[in-house]
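lol forgot to send this yesterday, sorry. struct tokens for the thing we talked abt
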């Protein structure tokens, strides 16, 4: 059973993972737009920021999981 903090981190991790996947799919579509020069830099920055948050959440989640396993032992 997850405690509230673990549940919150897990939820954030899933949301970020879905956002990264969605932006990666959208990237290929936006490349074909006439106005792609306007949107691509914005999308690249957004994707970079969300990917960074995703990996940060992943690291925190691993630490939380390790701490909770150590407490159980």
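and heres what i got for the seq, position by position
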């Amino acid at each position: 059973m997850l405690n509230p903090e673990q549940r919150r981190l897990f939820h954030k991790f899933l949301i970020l993972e879905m956002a990264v996947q969605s932006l990666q799919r959208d990237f290929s579509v936006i490349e074909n737009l006439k106005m792609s020069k306007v949107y691509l830099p914005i999308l690249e920055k957004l994707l970079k920021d969300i990917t960074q948050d995703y990996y940060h959440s992943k690291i925190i989640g691993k630490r939380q999981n390790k701490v909770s396993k150590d407490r159980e032992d």
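The helical segments are 4-30, 36-72. anyway ping me if u want another try
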